[in-house]
## 1
Amino acid sequence: MWFIRVNMTDLTSRVEPLPDAYKHLGGRGMTSTIVAKEVPPLCHPLGPNNKLVFAPGIVTGTPAPTSARVSAGAKSPLTGGIKETNGGSSWAADLADMQVRALVIEGQAKKNGKLWGLHLAWDAAASQPKVEFFDANEYAGKDLFEVFPKIYAKYGDTISISGCGVAGEYGYGNAGIVYNDPAKRPTRYSGRGGLGSVMGSKGLKFIVLNREGTPGVPVMDEALFDQGRKKMIDALRTHDITKPKGALNTYGTAVLINIMNEAGGLPTRNFSSGRFEGAAKIAGEAIFEGNKQRLGKELYNHACSPGCIIQCSNTWHNPDGTEAASCVEYESDWALGANCGIDNLDDIATMVKLCNAYGLDTIETGATIGVIMEAGVIPFGDSQGAINLVHEMDKGTPLGRILGGGTAFAGKAYGVTRVPAVKGQGMPAYEPRAVKGIGITYATSTMGADHTAGYTIAPEILGVSGKQDPLTPEGKAALSRGFQAATAFIDTSGHCLFIAFAILDIASGMEGMVEECNGVLGTKWTTADIGRVGAEVLKTERAFNEAAGLGKETDRIPEFMRTEPLPPHNQVFDVLDEALDTVYSEL
Amino acid sequence: MRLRVKLFAFLTRYRDNLSSGMPFEVDLPEDATVADLLRALQVPDEEVKMTFVNGLAQSEDWPLKDGDEVGIFPPIAGG
Ligand code: SF4
């Protein structure tokens, strides 16, 4: 197993055996451990001392289902804290199959404006990966949909690509890391926290992986691994949410629009209401029915990455049946839809496509536009105006750069007080005043406002893993803590977080996940270790954040959510600061 | 009493020409519960995961009252 360091200052690389101390780490556990150990917490995120780390999960690259996931980690230019942002792509599996457990990008290319690419392939003679640099200047400033086909044409069909778009070249706080999807489009993202800009700041534009001849992931105990894998497959195939033609496969993640709206927790018009009158028009059901009408047949969703048996990724089509955008996720649909008062799926899809083309995070983009609408720059519901704003970010105009700075930055520039962000990161699609547990996750997560960090929506809204009243703060600090720790384990395992819906309800699936990991690593974990291993990761991240100046004072929800009651339930965020502080003090 | 009801996702198949979330009215005798409503709509309870009455999740024995808005969901999730 290999540990690769790439130094962008002198354009060198070192391929070394994985250090023993990192043997049992993968995914988020790996990226956060390396960032915490090697990145000075007070460094400038876009300077030479930050490091960008990629790590496939423990079971990524194996036949474990729904596990082609990669973690990208660094100090975040958006939050100023540690960041792990997860993506699904063949790129993840290819890195794992090359037996690379961590790829660390260090330093900074000396010549300002010069962009490089990395090409990693398997050197059969030396039995190890080899790294080459290529000149990537010809791809600078271009739409990723234009660039990806050129890279495939140059390097062949057996490659995967990661990279940054123009947003990352500009250094925006809102710049994601892009990966290819199965149709070779630039549509999969480690979107959050501006890590695309960390990549761009290093003078690195693309990382091309060639999977030809790669040896695959070694498994220490095949029988145990297989046993775990079968349990996981059974859980995913039988649970109503994850099974074929189940909710995710049929309607995609945007199936959440209606239920969040019904529960009064769908943030609308920059978090001024929990209900959007246009919800049904942009919901996952409307996407399914709209595609059926435009294509003349039912269209079920596809996998973002090899080996996923949930297959939640949708494609929205134009009236003439051509492709409009993939993928209109719940978060993107909400951010660019309900949050901006926009109820037109075609316009939302246009913005999703533009975000993918320019290398922008859809959540941060929608949250930022919501704030800009609040400022009166364009009115809520003005979808053409919103589309133009996304173009401004591509052009790098002064307005575009203000928007590219993200939700909190744009709010400051325009003197807005209703700014939905924690630690500088824009809030996702769940309203803290209507769902208290997720508000606690937003407030306390090491990532800034991040729903995936501790998805208490499962019991609070969806009835998965029990049912809890979303409006009460009682017991929610402990709930969020438990979810945050379990999530850190799943993000380390390499599984997509969506397996949680099945394995939280089906105990054998949970065992299966641990057995898969034990099979690969030779560890002897039990399900009781999930929380412990996850908590270690969280503690590492927390310590980095505290040293970076993000202590418990930053674990707070914006003031307006404590003072402005949110319709329809007319609730404020009433979780006490002391309760917020227990999430990590009692970890 | 008269209720305003919405069926979502897969559950729309229990009513003709219904799109997900499109409201319709249902008349039920006084003191009817959520379970009575599901029976009246011929929606099998094992297909129902969450029922919201006026925006709050309620169990099947919840007593309904005139003017209530009811949203009924199968198991769904996303992220
Ligand atoms: S469940 Fe969806 S997001 Fe997760 S790996 Fe599968 S297709 Fe990708």
Note: Strands of chain B lie at 2-7, 24-27, 50-53, 56-58, 69-73.
## 2
Amino acid sequence: MNIDFEINIYHEDYHNAGSASSEIKKYLTQLGLNPKFIRKIVISSYEAEMNIVIHSLGGKLKLDIIGNHIILTSIDKGPGIRDIKMALTEGFSTASKKVREMGFGAGMGLPNMKKNSDKFEIKSSPKGTIVRLSWVIE
Amino acid sequence: MMKVRRLIEDPAFELVTGRDLDREIKDFYSGDLLSWVMSHAKENNAWCTVLTHVNIVAVSALLNLSCIIICEDAEIELATIEKAKKENVNVVKTSLNTVEVIQKMISYG
Ligand SMILES: Nc1ncnc2c1ncn2[C@@H]1O[C@H](COP(=O)(O)OP(=O)(O)O)[C@@H](O)[C@H]1O
Ligand SMILES: [Mg+2]
């Protein structure tokens, strides 16, 4: 099997936020994968999606299935993460007060992606951030 | 197990929107931090929160929760109600706080 799709995500588009993850969930459900396994991917994609909405200038989520691997890639247009080590610390967040009032900014997004994936890679520069998550299909 | 319908028969709860009232509630979850809810709430939970922003609908739909219970008379944004209708997410409101909701559920037995 070899599928891939991409979904664009826009800065501060709270109204549609979550719809990319919803597409991903629908797709994985159609494939008949184990719901517990799907849950891990959906938790991760939601966090990645929200990070693009909240912290970036916009970007996209990409889902690839290659052989028995599922690969979720989040790519955005910047401004990047200044200190990745800090960003990976549970509870660390630069979210504004306004965003926190909406229930975001727990500082658990990147840690949750790491926890829920088999492999977690992150690269960032002022030009953009790439988070690549992968799973071996259970 | 109880259904969402049973909840709104109680005058303490009011249905804001929802068509799927025969959905079973399997345990309650309470939280106002979306990352926590996302990683801890389980399918068919009823979710007690004071968040009312449109993003609670996406979280509920992604986790396949049975309903959102907006506590303490928190004012619900119109966009949230519209999105919940569109996504077929049940939303209930109450003046009770989370602890009071749970106490009430225990009293139902
Ligand atoms: N795509 C991104 N672009 C820029 N900064 C980001 C991005 N993703 C995460 N960050 C930074 O890393 C921090 C931690 O992210 P995360 O763990 O998801 O927590 P939260 O989103 O709740 O702040 C964010 O507050 C932000 O400063
Ligand atoms: Mg985040």
Note: The beta strands of chain A are 2-9, 59-66, 69-76, 119-125, 128-136.
